[in-house]
Amino acid sequence: MNNTESFFKRLTLVRLSASEKSRIKAGLLLRVNQAPVRNPSTDRLLSKRPSRLAYVYQILLTNNIKRMPIALIIALLFGGSMGGVSFAAENTVPGDALYSVKINFNEKAVEALRFSDKTKAEWDTRLAERRLEEAEKLASTGNLATSTQEALQAALEGHTKNVREHIKNLKEHDRFGDAEDIASNLEAALRAHGRALGHLSQEDLNALDTLRSVEDEFNLMQDEHRDIERRFVGTSSPEVKSAAEGKLIAAQNKLNEVQKFFDARSGSLASTTVDAVNAKLKLVKDTIAQGKTKLNDGIYGEAFLLFAKAQRMAQEVKHLLDVRNELGNRLKDGNRFDEVFERQQGDSFNDEDSNMPRMGNLRPRGDGKGGEGGDFSPNGGPGMQMKIKDDDEGNGSGKNNSGDGEDMEVRVQNF
Amino acid sequence: MHQGEYIQAFDDYSDAIFRHAFFKLSDRERAVELMQETFTKTWEYLEQGRKIINIRAFLYKVLNNLVIDEYRKDRKTVSLEMLVEEGFEIPSEEKLPLQDKLDFELALRHFSKLEEPYREVLVMRYVDNLEPKSIAEILGDSENAVSVRLHRGINKLQELMHTHHE
Lengths: 415, 166
What we know:
The complex is a heterodimer. By secondary structure, chain A is an all-alpha fold. Chain A has a domain at 16-113. Chain A is built from 16 helices and two strands. A two-stranded antiparallel ribbon of chain A has the order 1-2. In chain A, helix 6 (82-90) crosses helix 7 (99-111), helix 9 (146-172) runs antiparallel to helix 10 and helix 12 (238-265) runs parallel beside helix 14. The relative contact order of chain A is 0.08. The radius of gyration of chain B is 17 Å and the shape is globular. Chain B has helices at 3-25, 28-47, 55-73, 80-86, 98-112, 116-127, 132-139, 143-164. In chain B, helix 1 (3-25) packs antiparallel against helix 2 (28-47), helix 4 (80-86) runs antiparallel to helix 5 (98-112) and helix 7 crosses helix 8 (143-164). Classes of the chains: A mainly alpha, B mainly alpha. At the A-B interface, helix 1, helix 2, helix 4 and helix 12 of A face helix 1, helix 2, helix 3, helix 5 and helix 6 of B.
């Protein structure tokens, strides 16, 4: 047995190198020190702050500092102060003092830990969302300055361009499942944020420019996505079968996650909103059921696409709830916000299901599609701009709410 | 579990989790990524205020799910044997005497000839010192099945070492 003992001892050499280990540890420390961006348990973490110092000391004492790379030392040394700064920076928007910490420190630290096309694309998707969230926060109080809007738009376009690059690489390596996943995620995010921006353009006209850029990016991504989807149509190989089965689980998990997230918050939502979300979630379930039928019939490619669609729709609901959550405290008038939110929940939630035209048509209301209040009825679009010029209302920072310009309402189609 | 304990778990188990991923995937770079993802996912779980009783077993389970996803996605898996034939590189920063390196390479060569299910339990038991009971829990097998596999694995390994050695 001595023989095997030394044998297994040799196998311990299959291990992480010291630098890999410290690099990843540094990333985890940053992550752990940062309050989650969109998690309700933020307060819980904050209230625990004193204990962090204790554990930083513990790590410093139990590790050999000389062997640590700089990044880890920074994370450890600044854990007490920089960790706090880095946390504080997480919620900043352009113009805030700590915004550059968010962009240049927090985000770069996470970025450094992504290696593959897939994980990089996921991170770029998240960054695109973060820029949109910032634009939304600013727009919600009518503070989205033109220069800021332009900077955020440029950043957004940069990130989506990166995502397309990564998708291209994945396709070249025949990783269509991953490519689909990424395209789907970005599409859901763009659609949800497009909706939010449509609304916020009531508070800040500059949001319309962001919305147009989102529209363009959405269209590009949808083209990309359809190209990927074509690979699945009519296929029924065993690989696609197992991909479909995996996707089924992913879609179901996503649905459960969103359901839980929603259940935890539904108390604070208006009943019309609750109904709208429930209707959407039912649609997700129906889509999953359709996919299962296809799966049983052996039409695996279609099953995969249906599950992917279900996952995407669920993800979109999650994004919308997130935006609502995020903006809730920022808006001056909560009631007014809820009113806006209710209006948002119309049949727009169904648009993935009905074969509406692609998004991107800012249509005047009354050309056939708009229901009562419309699902997205921002006072935006060309009509609105003209109205504002006529009335000389400036950039409409939160005061153009009286009457909501019924006659001028436009609909953002298919968001 | 607070941040300190979580980081402690990283210190204690990151190598084992990486090793497990490596022997499953025969892809060093990917194994590093999956190890990292395992810890990130575990943190996300904790962040939601949920409790983990046995962090070590939990990490293995998260990893196993990630590995299953990996199998689903990518069919062109490389076997450990192929990898070893191509020459598995120990990261260059490890300063090892040449003899140790050669011993390691030989050990890996023998090991790569074993079937995967044996490799898995042997590494868990003898490299990472998990009790058969814990292995059974992580793999969702009975303790008895794990013990049998361990026993057979050892026998096979000794056979391999005899026939290929010296």
